[in-house]
Amino acid sequence: MVKVGIYGASGRVGKLLCSIVEESVGMELSSVYFKGENCGYPDALLSKTAEEFLTKCDVAIDFTSPEGTEKLLEAAEKNPTPLVIGTTGLNTHQQNLLRDAAKSMPILYATNMSLGVALLNSLVKTASEKLREFDIEIVEMHHRHKKDAPSGTALTLAEYAAAGRGLDLDSVRVSGRDGNIGARTKDEIAVMALRGGDIVGEHTVGFYNDGEFLRLSHTATSRDTFAKGAVKAAMWLSAQEKSGLYKIQDCLGI
Questions:
Q1: 40-94 confidence digits (pLDDT tens)
Q2: Is 85 exposed, middle or buried (0-12, 13-18, 19+ CB in 10 A)?
Q3: Could you say which DSSP state residue 31 is in?
Q4: How would DSSP label each residue in 191-253?
Q5: Which residues are catalytic?
Q6: Among the listed residues 51, 58, 106, 90, the one whose alpha carbon sits nearest the alpha carbon of residue 242
């Protein structure tokens, strides 16, 4: 029985994760950690600190905030534990902390845990490589409550697009246009963010050329998609004996 801890169990995805783990064969919800008042979890599951939380589980799933993930990674340095992390918006320091922690434990980090997006990343890289004369424009839309922009998923898609052409994304990415900015450059990869309503997540990668265009898109209609993917990743990661930074594609065999 794999003991699973949910870090950020009071959040929307956190609650879904707890429910799915409890219903999954071969898994046991062993520990939860969150800020604020208890929202109905048994006292036996509650952990007061990130350090205590890690001692109670074989693998932990984190869908919180960049600050929350940073705290978890710092605690994991003293208590190495397999971690599945789906938090987006990590800054450079937090990304470095993630890579350093992966030297002493297996960590699976993904900006999106869905099978569809994992495959979309691969398709975008192939299309970018084969359609070199096409302009690349990425548009994402999420609910009004999402704090980071562009989304981590959109940035990951842009990374795959850049990789398909051997480009450095930081050198070619554009995330806004306003005023008389001149004509679009050849290598430009645009990543635009829209916010509104309760949209779970929409991502479209467009490849545009004179006379034709191709659009690859993914729409998430439920947060269950991300939660189920994360739980599947946790079961897979718990069986990995080697430390390292894994991708969702590793788990899915893509």
A1: 788 889 999 999 999 999 999 999 999 999 999 999 999 999 999 999 889 999 9
A2: buried
A3: E
A4: EEEEE-TT--EEEEEEEEETTEEEEEEEEE--THHHHHHHHHHHHHHTT--S-EEE-HHHHHT
A5: 142, 146
A6: 106
